Amino acid sequence: MKKIGITILLTAIIMNGFCLKVSADNRDVEKQGTSANKNESIKVTIGKDRVRVEEKDSALNLKTGNRGLAILESLEGASFNIKKYSEKEERDQEDNEREHARRRSRFRGHWTGIELGYNNYLSSDKSFSMPSDIDYMTLHSSKSSNFNINFTQLSLGLTRHIGFVTGLGLNWNNYRFDGNNNIQKGPDGIIEELDPGLNLEKSKLATLFLTLPFMLELQIPVDNSRLHIAAGPIGALKLGSHTKMVFENGHTVKAYGDFSLNMLRYGATARVGYGNFQLFGTYYVTPLFQSGKGPAGNDLYPFEIGVALAFNN
What we know:
2 domains; 2 helices
């Protein structure tokens, strides 16, 4: 009975001071580890012994030591419930609060998600125009697209708003040819023009790569979200490639092979966004085809730009 009396006395003192403070300035109260959210609930925690007041829409929970008092409001009036907390419940509650605080404060990058954009390549002199002897490599830019799925991510925070981001993704590229042609691998491995002999409705080279970036990301809080900027190197491993021709009569021909494409490539990627929306760009310094085996021995350097929706929560 003595402990219960002390508990009720402490409860009355805390409630009186708490009500006066809230009515005076209607703001967050913090003392020795106190947190509050006045839009949803009000929480006051005092001291290491965890004297706590939690006010919600229809309930008031008070706790000191290992005992608590719950006051519930309903249409029938207020009801009271005195509870004794076990050591396990105390530990579980402390662990949950530490985990929630860690999640709120940790750095989370923006890589996982989906990306949609356009891809193309530059000639050796960094021009969109192909040399006259490989004019058949000219692309239909507005129909040469890429689609990426970034499915796993690791964030390495330096601070809450700065850190490194890495992960894995799948990168599909469609290089849509502008002329009535496709390509093939010659006997010596050099890429040559393929003349189908009939009119084509569309023709393309398609590739699939596994990508691995390593970016430094900076996040700037703006309103209720964040502006983020990230950049860094990116590597890719070829998983597959094929060509496709669709004739005017609807007949489709696919050819699978390596097409002398580089198995590994690396470059640089950058992205800027607000919230989970991003703009991205990637440029590879590794040529699309193996050295000396590009069309007529030319090197072509692929790049892609587009928009992304990141899932970093």
